[in-house]
Amino acid sequence: MTNNVNRRRVLQAMGAASTGMLTGYVGYKRQQDNGLSQSSVNVLLTYFPDMVFSPMTGAKAFGYFEKVGLNVNIRSTVAVQNPLQILASGNADITVTTPFDYIVGRARELPLETVVTTVGKTPLSYASMGKSNINGVQDWPGNTLGLQNETDRNWVTPAILSEEGLSEAQRNRIRQTFIGYSVTNLTANKVNIMSLYPTNSDFNSLRINGTEFNLVEARNYTTAPGNCAVTTTQFAEEHPDTVTEFTRAWAKAANESLKPSNKNRFAKMVLGQLRQANADVFLQGVDPLAVERSNFEQFLKYRPIDAWQRNGVGWNNPSDYLAAQQLGVSAGGIDQGATLSESNVVSNQFVNAVYTNGKLDWPQG
Description:
This protein is an alpha/beta fold. Helices cover 42% and strands 15% of the residues.
């Protein structure tokens, strides 16, 4: 790795990853009086600024970060292969990643701290064409399954095959191949089944224009979350007030993203973000705003979890992260000896700091 020196520096300074308690921070009012320890935050998003990131980009676009005294720079890119390495090297303060990669990072003793869970249930799905005879996992043998070489695909896929009871002989008849991310891999018949997110704009461009798909959804097989925002233990301990106010502003936008009445507001905001990023994510000449409205509706299925009603939107449910971890153990992705316990698999210090009885503490006026 090119950043081994930086990684060793962080590890030596902070020790192994932990969920240590915050000290020296007593809440919103004091920080408004005295100022934040650091008012600038650099955020790395590893995809186009699509609806998946709408609470993050919305918190900036709607002025919520500014409201709590933060200047947040959001960088979105599809060119980054290892965002956690960039985070550990100090080239980003916060990044959004999958819980699966977060678990791998913790197993490798990267000093990571969870900030919020941004999508409560994994949107990962496996699509086949609606006119095919592939209606479920039992129909996969004898067909080609296109996957991306990502941790969630590598961990979830064998778990689904196991839960569906496919024999070794049946599994061997599924031709697995690594492909790219465009849904055209499926529509052009390069593969018969494809792993994808039905919340993405290219998929919804086709779906709302009448193309029919059959979906197998990973959320029916695991409670693992979809995405999470993480920082380093070093940044969390040096700037707990900054991370707390970041969480507060994100949570403000995230709460609003769960209200159906805000569909048009978020769709227009995301479309503006995509245009600014020159992201060509729409297919078949479909109305881009209609696609983003559809994406918003899709995320209402995946973003919230029941535990958020009690603990606040963005709360990191330890049992859900343990479910992701167990998938990794079963798939051979992490060693049993590197697993984390329920008490330290995630931290909720920042989420707990901005909610009272599940209601967000937000400044008036």
